[in-house]
Each structure stands twice: as structure tokens, then as C-alpha cells.
Please model this.
Amino acid sequence: MTVDEIVEVIEGVVVTKTDADSLEIEYAMASDLMSDVLTLDTENAALITGLSNIQTIRTVEMQDIQCIILARGKRATAEMIKLAEQDNITIIESPYAMYRISGVLYQAGIKPHY
Amino acid sequence: MEFEYKVEGGDFTNAGSASSSVKKTLKKLNVDPKITRKIVVALYEAEVNIVAHAYRGDILVKISPEQINITLTDEGPGIENIEQAMVEGYSTASAKVREMGFGAGMGLANIKKNTDQMNIQSEVGKGTVLSFTNFLS
Ligand SMILES: Nc1ncnc2c1ncn2[C@@H]1O[C@H](COP(=O)(O)OP(=O)(O)OP(=O)(O)O)[C@@H](O)[C@H]1O
Ligand SMILES: [Mg+2]
Model:
């Protein structure tokens, strides 16, 4: 799915300026635990999370994950946005809870890891 | 090539900046992205461990055409039982660390998984030295 398609189905808002148009998301995982995210072997994935801090950005940077979906109205700070833009990471904010985002994206064809 | 970084215990704002810098260097050197990812995930786990569990530390990164060797030396409480610390799920992380999204007790095992060689030495009340090596091809 493209970022535009994802945004559409989760009532999301893109808050970063990156070249998001070239992104094609195939997989997603939902977790608040960065320890967990760091153990995954993944490609073309988005992270759905309720954890909104600088280490969320650092974690996805190390894992080459290029898209973060912040659930349940969590906002990205200016500092997070700045860091994400440097690393070409797209942040989407959504009012939906993690469970709903996961369900909607699963239905739309985004694959799980396990 | 050699690089050195300083890490401050408790400083979750800057945790990961050394790992980020190493990642950019490896990209410039055209190291395979899959190998780079393993190296920087391991380094980030180790860097966060200093921030989460120690007082301060140094990271020394040595890159040759064949391999990368990283040594993290910290001043901190040390690890009493390294074997136990390596077990997935064992963690002494504080509430603050957990709030930051860490403290599942998976880091050391993940460092082992992502590196070709790994060695930890620790002295209780003094600190810990973790070093690891990844081959670049
Ligand atoms: N540099 C260090 N100094 C002192 N203790 C450490 C250090 N690194 C690890 N430990 C000890 O080993 C335990 C296990 O470390 P590990 O990285 O596996 O898990 P964690 O840091 O607790 O959680 P996670 O890495 O999953 O976020 C820690 O909880 C801590 O007790
Ligand atoms: Mg750890």
C-alpha cells in the first residue's frame, strides 16, 4: 500500500516532509515495546505504535523501517519530526487505536510477520 | 578507520546517536544494507544498555575492509551473573527505562544473534566491557 492509501483508511495525517510517495508498505507490526521491534527481521514494513518518543524514531532508523503510525491520537514532537525527516522516515498520526489500525490494514492486505 | 563516541547514563534524548552515526558511515562505505542493519541493531542495543543501566561509557569503533569491531566500555554497576543477563526475559530495568519502550530483557540475546563474535566482561561495582565483531562480506 502507498502512504496515501494507508492515510485514507485510518483517517491519518502525515506530519513529516519526506519522499513518502515512493514508499510501498507490505508488512506491519504493532508494538509499544522497542526491545521487541529490534528483534524483527523485516523489510518494507510500517510500525504501528502508541509509544511516541525519540527512541521510537531511533529504533525504526536502525531497523530500516520507513514508516511509523502513531495510534490513538498520539502526537509526534517537533524533535521527533526533525529526526525522522533527516532519516527519511514518514510519521502518520491516526485517531484509531492500535487494534483498529491493525485490523483495517490487515484487511487491506498488509501482511503480518508471523 | 577508528571512531569514538561518548555515552551518558540516563540520557534517553541522545541514546542512539552513536549508532546513527555508525550507520551513516557504513552506508557511505557501501556495506551491504543487511549486514549494516545487524551491526547497528547490535550497537543500538548496547548503547541503550549503557544509557539504561550504567553511568557513562565510551564506544570505540574500528572498521577495516574485512570486519568491524566495536567495544563499549562503561562505568556502572556491572553485571553480576552474565549468563543470567543473557537469558531472554531477564531484566533489572527501571520503570523509567520501561516507559521509554525498553526493558524486556531481550537486548543481550539480540546482540548475540546479530553479531559474528561477542564477548562481555564485567566487574561488579566498576563496569562492563562488551565487544563484538561482524564480518563485512
Ligand atoms: N552495561 C550494563 N551495565 C550493567 N548492567 C547491564 C548492562 N547491560 C545489561 N545489563 C544487565 O543485564 C540485563 C539484561 O540486559 P538486556 O539488554 O538483555 O535487557 P534489558 O536492557 O533489561 O532490556 P531490553 O534490552 O530488552 O530493552 C539488564 O536488565 C541489566 O541488569
Ligand atoms: Mg538492553
